[in-house]
């Protein structure tokens, strides 16, 4: 139990470091140009959208002329002077279309003496669907579902999204020009690539129509996506703005929170608890099961030989893995991470692996993730192999009482993986 308490305490420190309220307030209070603009518009989207908007409203107050931020269903934040519109996620819905249209209208109405403050966090891409005609929302939903099911990573998914949208891939910056645009960004992508976070609505887009087609071909989806999607990509008209485009001359993109910052806070917490600590990487990607087994191998190596650290040891990593869906069970990538690691650490004393999403939700569940230890497989009344085959981690860990339940955290800087050996 004390090992579990330590793991949860380390996770709590990581989440505190990703607090969007403090990040947005600090970024705005550092600026000395806010009084020079005739009007300030606040727009944006993301899982942390409500929290970020509330922080902006606190600092800017009556200087906000108008605002609209698309947030995930369940976000209860309030921000004076800013419309907060709940929308579907991860599959976009009609509410997202209406919110994206409203954001686009506000940006298009801004002039050269105005400021457009754009607040972006994880989930922004799905929350701002603005299909390029004649593509419909239903066709965009179908395309998104196909991409999610095949295990495409966030870079691949967003390359496609940008080229069937009128909003993403720098197109919001194009709408707002010549106004000043400042985007405050909570990064949820590996490497903090500006053109990938939220599909880069205010950043130059390196990807092309050809890139999007290559993604479809990689997963054998070109003939499975709706005809309107395929035809738009193959026609290749209306390319997104690229680096050096004049629309970006008056644009600032500022990352105010990231996975790396959370890993550093987690490491500090672990050291305070007496663990020898190392950060493995903040750029972990790949198939969830493979990455989980690699983490389990590190745990075994620490237990058996004291490498790369002697116990008590804490190894921390972050990033975003992907799950190829094979079954019809309930779970998410972080729960599957713990499930895949469990057999490989079975029997190891005082050894634990935790994986959790910093947004507090993992897949279509109320859990942020799960933890497994050397006794997990023995304690479970379910077959671990069967749960893995059916992508059914949620009932497995729910039965053991080892789900990580944080509730909505109001932030999102990808996932956190913790190995503890004592």
Topology at a glance:
Blueprint (H helix, E strand, L loop, with lengths): L1 H16 L2 H10 L9 E8 L2 H12 L3 E9 L10 E5 L6 H16 L4 E7 L3 H4 L9 H14 L3 H9 L8 H6 L3 E7 L22 H10 L8 H9 L15 E7 L1 H14 L3 E9 L3 H18 L7 E7 L13 H13 L5 E7 L11 E5 L2 H4 L4 H6 L3 H8 L2 E2 L10 E7 L1
Parallel strand pairs: 1-2, 1-4, 2-3, 4-5, 5-6, 7-8
Antiparallel strand pairs: 8-12, 9-10, 9-12, 10-11
Helix pairs in contact: 1-11, 2-3, 7-9, 12-13, 13-16
Explain this structure.
With 422 residues, the chain is α/β, with parallel strands linked by helices. The chain has two domains: 20-258, 3-Layer(aba) Sandwich (Rossmann fold); 260-421, glycerate kinase, domain 1. Helices cover 40% and strands 19% of the residues. The chain has helices spanning 2-17, 20-29, 49-60, 94-109, 124-127, 137-150, 154-162, 171-176, 209-218, 227-235, 259-272, 288-305, 333-345, 376-379, 384-389, 393-400, and strands at residues 39-46, 64-72, 83-87, 114-120, 180-186, 251-257, 276-284, 313-319, 351-357, 369-373, 403-404, 415-421. The strands form two sheets. A six-stranded parallel sheet has the order 3-2-1-4-5-6, with helices on both faces. Strands 7-8-12-9-10-11 form a six-stranded mixed sheet, sandwiched between helices. Strand 7, helix 12 (288-305) and strand 8 (313-319) form a beta-alpha-beta unit. The two termini are 12 Å apart. The mean pLDDT is 95.
């Amino acid at each position: 139990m004390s090992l579990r308490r330590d793991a949860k305490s380390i996770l709590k420190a990581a989440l505190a470091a990703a607090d969007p309220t403090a990040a947005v307030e600090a970024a705005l209070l550092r600026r000395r140009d806010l009084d020079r603009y005739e009007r300030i518009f606040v727009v944006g989207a993301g899982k942390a959208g409500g929290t970020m908007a509330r922080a902006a409203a606190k600092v800017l107050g009556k200087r906000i002329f108008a605002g609209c931020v698309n947030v995930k269903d369940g976000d209860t934040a309030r921000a004076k002077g800013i419309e907060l519109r709940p929308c579907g996620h991860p599959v976009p819905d009609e509410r997202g279309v209406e919110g994206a249209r409203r954001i686009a209208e506000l940006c298009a109405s801004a002039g050269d003496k105005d400021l457009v403050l754009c607040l972006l966090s994880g989930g922004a891409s799905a929350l701002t669907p603005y299909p390029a005609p004649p593509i419909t929302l239903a066709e965009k939903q179908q395309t998104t579902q196909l991409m999610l099911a095949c295990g495409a990573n966030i870079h691949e998914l967003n390359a496609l999204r940008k080229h069937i949208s009128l909003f993403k891939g720098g197109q919001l910056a194009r709408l707002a020009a010549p106004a000043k645009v400042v985007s405050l960004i909570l990064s949820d992508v590996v490497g903090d690539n500006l053109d990938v976070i939220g599909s880069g609505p205010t950043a130059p887009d390196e990807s092309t129509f050809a890139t999007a087609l290559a993604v479809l071909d990689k997963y054998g989806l070109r003939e499975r996506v709706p005809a309107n999607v395929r035809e738009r990509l193959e026609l290749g008209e209306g390319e997104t703005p690229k680096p050096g485009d004049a629309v970006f001359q008056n644009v600032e993109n500022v990352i105010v929170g990231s996975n790396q910052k959370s890993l550093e806070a987690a490491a500090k917490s672990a050291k305070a608890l007496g663990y020898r600590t190392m950060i493995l990487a903040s750029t972990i990607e790949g198939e969830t099961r493979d990455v989980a087994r690699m983490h389990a191998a590190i745990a075994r190596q620490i237990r058996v030989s004291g490498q790369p650290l002697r116990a008590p040891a804490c190894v921390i990593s972050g990033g975003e893995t992907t799950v190829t869906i094979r079954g019809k069970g309930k779970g998410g990538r972080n729960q599957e991470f713990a499930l895949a690691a469990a057999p490989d650490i079975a029997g190891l004393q005082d050894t634990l692996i935790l994986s959790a999403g910093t947004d507090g939700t993992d897949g279509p569940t109320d859990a942020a993730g799960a933890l497994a230890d050397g006794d997990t497989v023995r304690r479970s009344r379910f077959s671990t192999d069967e749960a893995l085959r059916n992508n059914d981690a949620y009932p497995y860990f729910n039965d053991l009482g080892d789900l990580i339940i944080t509730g909505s955290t109001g932030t999102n800087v990808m996932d956190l993986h913790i190995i503890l050996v004592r």
